[in-house]
Specification:
By secondary structure, this protein is mainly alpha-helical. It is built from 2 helices and no strands.
Length: about 70
């Protein structure tokens, strides 16, 4: 009975003491977060540019036909 209590106590101490080494004593190093800005885009939609080019081509074709 005494050996069983000794073994149970030793096993309990072994399990409890292993969690003490889980962390570590080194300080935590926090690296700075890089913030990336969104690329600046044009305020004019590409659809308007295409419509403008097509309109200019139609006006040029109508002017040269006269």
């Amino acid at each position: 009975m005494r050996i069983t209590k000794t073994l149970a106590t030793a096993a309990t101490l072994a399990v409890v003491s292993t969690s003490a080494f889980a962390g570590g004593v080194a300080p935590v190093i926090v690296e700075p977060v890089e913030v990336m800005e969104a690329p600046k885009t044009s305020s004019v939609s590409s659809t308007y540019v295409v419509v403008g080019v097509v309109a200019a081509l139609l006006i040029a074709a109508a002017a040269s036909a006269e």
